[in-house]
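With this grant's support, we have settled on a layout for protein records. One resulting record is reproduced below.
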Amino acid sequence: MNLRIQSETQAYKARILIVDDIPENLQILNHVLSDEQYLVRAAISGTQALQILPKFNPDLILLDISMPDIDGYQVITQIKTNPATSEIPVIFLTAKALSEDIVKGFRCGASDYVTKPFKTEELLIRINTHLNLRFRTQELKQINLELEKIVDARTYELQLANNKLSKLDKAKNDFLLLVNHELRTPIHGISGFLQLLEEQSLPAEFTDYISMLSASTNRLLKLSESALLITSVQTGYQNINFQPININSLVRQSLVDHQEAILIKNLKVNKHPDTENAEVLADSKLAVIALNKIFENALRHSSVNDTIYIDTYSTEQFTSINISDQGTGFLPETLQNLFHFFHSGTTTNQTFGFGLGLATVKLIMELQEGSIQAYNNKEGHATVELIFKSTHQKIHTS
């Protein structure tokens, strides 16, 4: 058998292994494929082919079905069960035109078949088609590998960044909690001394100064309490204790807390309860804080002899408390950013001073799987609605 000898240093399009027990067939195929710039190796038996395979590492195999030692079906079965060679396309060379033989070849893992005697042009087209598929597949795999490396690198970088941010965030939150706790001690001390001074007989001008200092100190204390609450809620330090709470008891508690301010302005409070027995699932401490902040806002924007309206509504799913004052209502541009931190929600002046009030209430309500809405009612007055889950609704604690 006179096969053309090819050097692997020469340029070639692909490696092809030919397996046939007839030397003349090998010689013809070798010349045809070599002329097409393919690097060719030949095996005269299935056993020899399996020996050459790992050393030559072909891109495609032309495999005769009928061979004396082990036939083509056995050869391809071994090729396809070996992970190192399973993706190499195999084209059967067969003189058998029976459909069951062809089907058997495909079931063993063949990519295509060519019947003997083959037409050179047809064979080359089929070879070219399967080589292109193989090379495109290899390119895609390589691209995927590169992308995976990039993704892994980016993921690792993000993990490092997230870990760093988590540490910084924890340090910040711990610092804020510490500062807020530490602020309360001197503020309470100042308030105590101011109360002592208020009890002394002092000239009127000093009394006015002391009153202004007391108001500023109280404002600082409320700011510190709000900041502490916000930090606790956002960091998860705030423990939530869900329990059934009577909605009207909650309203009555808020009225008791603000009785002095109501009397000072001679305000009327008009309550319209939907039901006396309505209960909500909420944390009693947080629910009182949320309602008190809304009620304080209504008090702030009420003039002497005004009326504050409190309406409660209950359905199977939700129970709400609506508080309306007789102030000038919310400006349109204010409603767009009303629940953002450090946005001064305004009617004609600042609603919550430092922009913490409604944003804090929103945090509290969301923590209890409730919500808050703010709008101007049909009379143009500000209305804020707190919406709680009714008692039979399931609260998600995880």
Notes: The longest strand covers residues 382-390. The chain has three domains: 15-118, 166-235, 242-390.
